[in-house]
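Trying the structure run again after the queue cleared.
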Amino acid sequence: MRQASRYKLHRLLKTFSSDARGTIAITFGMSVIPLALAGSVALDMANSSKVKSQLQAAADTAVLAAATRLAGNASESDKEEIALSTFYANLSPYVQEQITSTPEVSVDFPNQTVSMNVAVSSAPLLGHILRDEIGISVSSAATLAPGTPVCMMALNPTKSKSINMQGTADLLAVGCAVHVNSSHPGNALYQNGTGTGTADSFCVKGGYEGTNFTPPPKHCYLEKDPIAAQFEADWATVNTDCQYSNWPQINIDGETELSPGVYCGGLDIKKGVVKLQTNGIYVFKNGPLNVQAHGTLMGDKVAILFTGNDTTRLITQAGADIIASARTESPFRGIIFAQEPTSIPQSENLIIGGGEININGIMYFPTQPLKVTGNGEIGTNAAQFAIIADTISIEGNGQLKIKIGQNYASTGLPDLPASGEIVYLND
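Done. Tokens:
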């Protein structure tokens, strides 16, 4: 009897033991699901963090690249293309697959800012246990801080010595920069002799030769002609039919006033003062405007333009005086001397110092060379004086002084590119 009771007790304990193991198995099985979900969430969060970090780094790089090119005169679509291509180039193939729409790029030219917004949908690593996809978004913006306006620019894209400084002549660019578009690898910018070049910066697309630059030149991007579009539109308003032909040489003491219009066959100012009418537009066609040693050319708010055959150019001889300022309203706002691009003279436009050369405005010879030589000072008293030409030679033993202030636009000059901008990510 006692043995039977022991047997029953043993059976009861064994049954209880079996029931306990079943309970533990069920409990463990039920706990696997939340553990798996928690692990999935943790992995998804880690993956999303990596994706977001890569997206943010790529967006930052993209807006910095596009903002850097705000310094150039490219279009808004060009800046957007730079931003997008840079963005994708900095992403892994896996992250690129997650992007379901084109990133939004905004170029704010007035405020010199490029911004980018990116949204992606990333699939969960362990399937659709909790959600179908994970939304990730980043944004970035970069701004181009204002630099120094360019007051001398050589536009030729390939020529050696596009800006050529020879002898003892000094170039002084006050509060502004010098830019050379030529990609010539050896001496797109050239200096020889004891003359010096001083500017806020010297930028050259290609190489340079010479040691008398302050500061030393640096490599820069190609810049578009900043005046081309304005000049083309303004030139379209000009009637180039001859109004005054074979004008006699001006060789008298005293003052001679010229009416605005088209002068064909050239004009020599040998002696006396020739005064141009305020706000007048003067076109010289098929012949040079030649201001000789004892001649003076004066004009307030005028545009002096050249077109026609290969004899048409500007010449000022040693001792000549030019005292003139550009128009402050369209057409030809800010342009004091300019040559129509299809008119190519046999010899360069020539300014020989020695007299009073006081020019306020932009000298614009986009496909023609300009040579500045002689002694004395040129541009010393000018408030705003800039030179844009195909090539520029500075020779002799004088000083060429050019100047563009930060507020130059308020004086009527057109927009000019800038050099030395600082690009930074916005907070």
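The two ends are 90 Å apart (CA to CA). Worth checking whether this holds up in the mutant runs.
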